[in-house]
Every structure is written in structure tokens, then in C-alpha cells.
């Protein structure tokens, strides 16, 4: 089925099949040229040495442009306690992306029943119990629970690199289920939070442009779930709280893809996690981030799968 | 309750309470001195800048001693498809450590029912469905599915760093639920696999000793589940397939802790994943690995929480 996108027509029309074909072509090129390895599940890949080389260079370059923040380094596991997850209210806005973890708590007899069911070709997950853990959907989530109470004057700023999981299987190599975000998070006053979001965008844009990528900065349109979600999505665009750095991975006339973001949460986490500023107000927060796999794959899409053949200026910007 | 361990007596007796106290003391020191951050769930921690500094140094040193392998770099996400997990037979041997992932696949109406249950303070995981994904319990697992078929002459050798999850909540900071293994895996003939396991041990031991750690190499005793598992555990020890590099984190007279391992799988994965050698035999495999968080925490336990105050020789060995 070919669906013409609203507002486009004639030779530049973006059709779903065109876009799907472009995504499939990039995916094939990345797999055929040994950049990614197919793990047999949409949106899950093994990453090879050439991928890691570029990925590490992207990450190091991102760290360099935020060095002036003197951010506190924090790393978290790919899972977070359910209690922390609950306070983010993620299950209300993005239930379809969430992922819960179950474990086996039975005895020898229950284990034999599980294995017997498995032997019969039946599913055995019903023998497991919820483990009070979720896969972390947003890399900065675990930090807010550590900040309940009163912040120092000037707030706090964090360097957080970690795993993000979102349950959205896709054959688009720009949309992974498991990926890494390197986030620089500030928690402070309404003014310092807004300044953090707005102040970092020009440097992030310039860095991505130095990688030879065409970049635009646009209001984000997150995939809030369901009918209430449509309203939340409209609010998000109208209030212009979150911006995305987008690049034309699949061509100028097709939807551009977000590879970075700058997000003002206002008092969302400050309220949920009871974080106050030194002057007694509810803390505001903001984070800026690159999606590391997205930037990396955008580079392979733009310049080809052999980094040694990339333009000299791009290799210099990446210190490759 | 004080339980005296078999074979010990008198002043050097190891009691459970003694050991628990030693574990609690190390955990407190790591938290109080800002090496780890408590996330409110046993065995899940945030890792700070000082932790990451040592962790990165340990990882880099491990890579240096295996450089001669010229291993192919592969990185995997923290989750793996259920189909791949099934072929490892992990659920038969270690069901209590396994972790399954569920997602929400319902519509707007089901989502409202989920949120209503949540509002009433009820658990809402029953609204989710198994997602055909497992958390990866062993970092090398995903590689075998990529090798089905015939290997080149000489086999293949991989450098695999990744996330491992095992559902064993513990207050012992040496036993995390989510951690990283850096594994060097060889798949080839019975002889080359055994040579890989045995040949790497001396270098791994020497490296850990250069870090100022006392090391012994002992047969592993994995926690196979249940009554059948007791038999498997005895077999493992008798056949001496897997060795562990252990260090006395909690004192000479208390159980030493594994911080590295060298494991010969024989034809386990070769058979399960239909991998054959160039001469037509069933492939054998072996992997050697450091548990990166375990080595890192063993260093903090041995030398204190300020790396700048560590012995000069230790800092030199770590290039710190």
C-alpha cells in the first residue's frame, strides 16, 4: 500500500513503501558490510568492531563539548527498581514501550512442571513472577530518586551514559529496541534548567554538522499512547518543551530522524521525586543527549560503511 | 544464627554472620565514600566517576593481555531473543537466575484498566504479555547463534563485552544482579578450545596479581538449580571444565570470591547451535573473562576507596 503523506505531492511525495524501502536498503547495507549483525529480532543487533570504532569516537566528541559543565559521572544498570519507575509515571504515557522483568521463584517441583510444559512446546513464562524490576526506558530516570531533598545552590549537573530499552520492534535501523543515550542532566531552578536545555543546543548542532550531517532543530513529537496521549503530544509541541536534532537519513523529502534531543521537564521530576532547590522551590530539570547508535548509524548512512574513506574533515571532527 | 563452615574451627572459623558483617562493611564503605550509589534494590547500584575510572582501567588492561588473539569485536544488547536463549538450555540449569521480559500490547481500553488497577494499588504486570525476549545471563550466549554452519580453519575468536543479568538479589557488593563481563571466546576444535581456556589463565592471573590482588585458580562450582543441579554441579567440579580466578575479598579465612573465569564448554554450544569445524567435527568452545565490576570492587576492597593513594606499582599496572 502506498500512502502519500499529508502536504506532499508529485515527484517529492513520501510514500510509506518508499520510506520502508529506504530503511530496508540501509539495514541491508549495514548488515552486508559487517557494521551490524542480525540477531533475529527486529531492532536488536550485534555491533561489530567498525561500528564500535565510530560509536566510541561519537561518544568521546560529545563528552568534549560538554566538558565545561564539569558534570558528575553516573552510570546505571539497564534495569531499575519498579518503585523508581512508578514515580516517573512512564506507564501512563508510554505503556507500549515499557518492559517489565519476571523471574522464577519456584521450587524443584515447579521447575519440573516448567520444563515439562517447555518439553510439550508450551510457553513457560507463566511459571515466572514479576521481579519488581523494569528495563530502564530513559537513561536519566534513575538519577531523580537520588536527589529527593534539597539541592545545593547552583543545582547539580550529571553525565549519564547508559542503556535504554523501548519495546518498539522495527526494521528501521534508526529505531532500535535497545540503545545507548549519553545524557547531560541538570537539576536546579526553573531558570537554570531552561538555560541548560537552551544553552547546549548550539554546540550539539555544531558538532553534528562538523560530522558532515545536515541538522535541523525542531519541536519533538513523542509517541504518547492512546487518546489521552494525543492530547499530551499536542501539549508537548505547543509548549515547545522538548527539541530534537534531526537529520535526513532517508533523504531530504522523507521524514528526518532525531539523533539528539534537548528536553525541559519543568517540575515533572522535581514534583514526583520531592526535589527542592536551595531557595525552597520545586526543582526543575532538563537533559540534553545524543542517541549514540543513531548518530553512529546516521554517519554510516551519510558517508558509507568504511570510515577510512570518509571525508578528511569528518574524520578530523571525530578524531578518527 | 552463626553457622560454622565445614572444615573450619576455632579462631579462624568462618561464620555466616561474620561473613555477612564483612560484606555489609564493604558495602557501607563503597556507598559512604561515593564509589557506588544505592538504588534501593539489593545488587543494583549507580556507579560514580571514581568507580568508572578504575573500571575503565581494568577493562583496558584486560584487553591488552589478549591483544595477541586479534579477536573479532562484538557487542550485544542486554537482551536476547527467546529463541536464542532457549538453545542454551539455561532455563533447565539456572531457572532462578533467568529473567524474562514482558510488554504491553493492549489497546486504549486495556490501558485504562491497567491504570485503574494501579490507582487501586494493585499490581499491573498481569496486563503485560511475554515479549519473546530474555535478559542475557551470559555475555557470550548471543555469539553462538551467529556461527551455525561451518567454521573457517583455525576457528574464530571473539572479544565480547556486555551486560549480564542474573536474578540473585544480594547485599554482598561482590554479587550484583546487573554487571559486565569482558569475554574472549574461541570456537574451534576440541584441541584449540582447550588450548584457549588453558593458555590464557597464566596471563590473567599475572595481571590480577600485578594489581596487588592475591589470586588462586580453582575449579568452579556453579549454582546449578535443584536436585538434578546438584549432580550437574558435581560433574562440573569432577570434569574440571571451568576454573575461577578467586581472591580473598573478605579475608584469607573466609570464602574467596571469583573475579574471573576460564570455561571449556566442550561441544555444548557446538551441538545446540549446529556449529561444525572445517574438518566436519562438532565445534568446541571456551571463554575466558573478567567480571569487570568484581575486579574493580576487589581493588577498592584491597587498596581503599581513593585510587590516588594506591601503591605505585598497582597504579602503574592499571595505567592509572
UniProtKB/TrEMBL annotation, chains A, B:
Domain (Aminoacyl-transfer RNA synthetases class-II family profile): residue spans on this chain: 162-307
Signal peptide annotation: none
EC number: 6.2.1.n2
Cited PROSITE patterns: AA_TRNA_LIGASE_II
The organism's place on the tree of life at top rank: Bacteria
SUPFAM superfamilies membership: Class II aaRS and biotin synthetases (SSF55681)
InterPro entries the record matches: aa-tRNA-synth_II, aa-tRNA-synth_II/BPL/LPL
Protein keywords: Ligase
Enzyme superclass (EC): ligase
UniProt GO MF annotations: ligase activity
Protein name (Swiss-Prot/TrEMBL): Amino acid--[acyl-carrier-protein] ligase
Amino acid at each position: 500500500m502506498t500512502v502519500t503523506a499529508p502536504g506532499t505531492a508529485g515527484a517529492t511525495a513520501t510514500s510509506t513503501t518508499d520510506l520502508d524501502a529506504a530503511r530496508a536498503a540501509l539495514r541491508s547495507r549495514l548488515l552486508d558490510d559487517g557494521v551490524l549483525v542480525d540477531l533475529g529480532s527486529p531492532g536488536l543487533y550485534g555491533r561489530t568492531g567498525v561500528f564500535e570504532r565510530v560509536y566510541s569516537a561519537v561518544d568521546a566528541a560529545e563528552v568534549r563539548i560538554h566538558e565545561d559543565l564539569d558534570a558528575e559521572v553516573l552510570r546505571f544498570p539497564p534495569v531499575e527498581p519498579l518503585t523508581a519507575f512508578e514515580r516517573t509515571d512512564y506507564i501512563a504515557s508510554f505503556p507500549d514501550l515499557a518492559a517489565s522483568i519476571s523471574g522464577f521463584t519456584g521450587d524443584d517441583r515447579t521447575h519440573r512442571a516448567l520444563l515439562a510444559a517447555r518439553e510439550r512446546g508450551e510457553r513457560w513464562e507463566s511459571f515466572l513472577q514479576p521481579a519488581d524490576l523494569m528495563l530502564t526506558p530513559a537513561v536519566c530516570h534513575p538519577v531523580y530518586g537520588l536527589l529527593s531533598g534539597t539541592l545545593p545552590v547552583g543545582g547539580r549537573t550529571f553525565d549519564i551514559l547508559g542503556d535504554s530499552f523501548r519495546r518498539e520492534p522495527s526494521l528501521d535501523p534508526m529505531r532500535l529496541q535497545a540503545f545507548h543515550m549519553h545524557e547531560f542532566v541538570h537539576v536546579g531552578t526553573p531558570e537554570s534548567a531552561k538555560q541548560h536545555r537552551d544553552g547546549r543546543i548550539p554546540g550539539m548542532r555544531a558538532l553534528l554538522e562538523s560530522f558532515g550531517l545536515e541538522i535541523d532543530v525542531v519541536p519533538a513529537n513523542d509517541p504518547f499512547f492512546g487518546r489521552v496521549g494525543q492530547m499530551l503530544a499536542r501539549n508537548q509541541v505547543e509548549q515547545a518543551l522538548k527539541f530534537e536534532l534531526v537529520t535526513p537519513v532517508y533523504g531530504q523529502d522523507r521524514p528526518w530522524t532525531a539523533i539528539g534531543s534537548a528536553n525541559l521537564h519543568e517540575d515533572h521530576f522535581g514534583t514526583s521525586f520531592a526535589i527542592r532547590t536551595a531557595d525552597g522551590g520545586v526543582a526543575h530539570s532538563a537533559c540534553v543527549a545524543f542517541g549514540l547508535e543513531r548518530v553512529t548509524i546516521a554517519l554510516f548512512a551519510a558517508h558509507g560503511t568504511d570510515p577510512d574513506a570518509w571525508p578528511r574533515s569528518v574524520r578530523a571532527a571525530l578524531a578518527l
